[in-house]
Design a protein that fits this description.
Elements lengths: L2 H6 L14 E3 L6 E9 L7 H11 L3 H5 L1 E7 L4 H14 L1 H6 L2 E5 L19 H21 L3 E7 L3 E3 L3 H15 L5 E3 L8 E4 L3 H11 L5 H13 L6 H11 L8 E3 L32 E6 L9 H5 L5 E3 L7 E11 L2 E6 L12 E7 L6 E5 L5 E5 L4 E9 L7 E9 L1
Parallel strand pairs: 2-3, 2-5, 3-4
Antiparallel strand pairs: 1-4, 5-8, 6-9, 7-8, 10-12, 11-18, 12-17, 13-16, 13-18, 14-15, 14-17
Helix pairs in contact: 6-8, 8-9, 9-10
Length: about 425
């Protein structure tokens, strides 16, 4: 943001550091083809950002990962509230932060005006004004941070899943649309409001300025529609011409590339009615090219066709009845194999509570007779670890406490 931003948002001048992040975990990736911006906040409900970020990364091939930047804005006024989330994101996505694919940023609390003293009118409740002001300023900060980093900017939420190779779909649509309709302003890739909008970064400044002027007045999707309407119409144009111009300004992809998975909205106690739109089977688990196994074993009874072997082979997720202390999930390799790192993900968007909460990962090195403890599952039902044991015969998950939920093993990933 520049000095003009300070004129529109005079509270910024009170602190010289208002626009500087209070936390930044980033690489030096520049000149990207696509920059993806995601805002997230502290939540006591579900940590959707983990699922969304994993899904985004897994849906790209290596070439696409090399040309893309994902920026996660953790938008909280109190840094101490989100330290556990920041540590978790930095740990789980360490490989992708190191490669430059993922960046994590937290704005200064002084970037925001005093949200308790915003002017309102009787028809616009103060809690609603406060909520949308905060959300609009989150989006504005992320746009300003992301804009210099790439050619196109994709705006997402923290509670979505994506179609496989979504980047390829987006870039192909940009090309074909630009050939036939070069003056488009925003492309829409999702049927849920506020999700899946793609901008040319060179033309974002005008809309960002519009947000700065009207950030208290209406939600972000209304602001975008209002901006496009004002840009597409003038007093000497007919209503029909205005409609055509607006449609040309925001072409829509024929299918939705993003599905909304959130159950809880940012409004306290409000449950989203958009849960699980167009949920496909492939959004419920993540398949990987893992080393061949001689056998898999578990004494947790599987539900229906969701067996452990089918899960390991990437056909579905494992879904087992309530685990009890001492239950195991074992993967025995066809031959001793060097595993550099592993990740196990549990739960999915339809079975959010079905996770390993009390379990550990153990490994059996070659020529050893007992499994060796490596790491506990975290409180969010996910575990990632680097290994330095040389060749392994097997890896297993061992349950350490009875569970009140069934369990879904939605991801088994070995780097070998």
């Amino acid at each position: 943001m520049n000095s003009f931003a300070i004129e529109l948002m005079p509270h910024l001048i009170q602190r010289s550091s208002s626009l500087k992040p209070v936390f930044l975990l980033n690489g030096s990736r520049q000149d990207c083809e696509l920059v993806i911006g995601i805002t997230t906040t502290h939540s006591d409900k579900e940590l959707y950002i983990l699922v969304s970020l994993m899904n985004l990364i897994d849906a790209m091939n290596e070439k696409e990962k090399g040309k893309t930047l994902i920026i996660v804005l953790v938008a909280e006024l109190i840094l101490d509230q989100v330290r556990p989330l920041l540590e978790l994101l930095a740990f789980v996505f360490a490989e992708h932060v190191h490669s430059g694919l993922v960046e994590i940023v937290v704005p200064s609390p002084h970037y925001y005006p005093d949200l308790e003293t915003l002017t309102t009118n009787p028809l616009d409740p103060s809690n609603r004004v406060k909520r949308r002001t905060k959300q609009n300023l989150d989006i504005l900060y992320l746009m300003a941070y992301a804009r210099p980093r790439g050619t196109y900017y994709l705006s997402l939420r923290d509670d979505i899943t994506v179609k496989y190779r979504f980047v390829e779909h987006i870039m192909d649509f940009i090309k074909t649309t630009s050939d036939t309709n070069p003056h488009w302003y925003v492309l829409e890739f999702c049927n849920v409001r506020g999700v899946g909008k793609v901008f040319r970064t060179k033309s974002m400044v005008q809309f960002m300025t519009y947000i700065q002027i009207f950030y208290k007045n209406m939600p972000i999707d209304w602001l975008l529609n209002s901006y496009i309407a004002n840009s597409s119409c003038s007093r000497n144009k007919t209503t029909e011409t205005c409609k055509k111009n607006k449609l040309k300004s925001k072409p829509k992809y024929p299918v939705s590339l993003f599905n909304h998975i959130g159950l809880y909205s940012t409004s306290e106690g409000k449950v989203q009615i958009l849960k699980h739109l167009n949920t496909d089977e492939e959004t419920l688990f993540t398949a990987h090219d893992n080393p061949p196994v001689d056998r898999v074993y578990t004494d947790i009874p599987a539900y229906d066709k969701h067996t452990l072997l089918r899960a390991y082979e990437g056909e579905t997720f494992f879904w087992g009845k309530k685990p009890v202390e001492g239950n195991v999930v074992e993967f025995w390799f066809r031959e001793p194999t060097i595993i550099v790192s592993y990740a196990f993900g549990t739960g999915n968007i339809l079975h959010e509570k079905d996770k390993f909460y009390h379990a550990v990962v153990e490994v059996l090195p070659y020529k050893r007779h007992q499994f060796i403890y490596d790491k506990d599952f975290g409180e969010f039902g996910y575990v990632y670890g680097d290994l330095h044991f040389g060749e392994l015969v097997a890896i297993r998950i061992r349950v350490t406490k009875n569970s009140t939920h069934m369990v879904v093993l939605s991801e088994v990933r070995y780097n070998w």
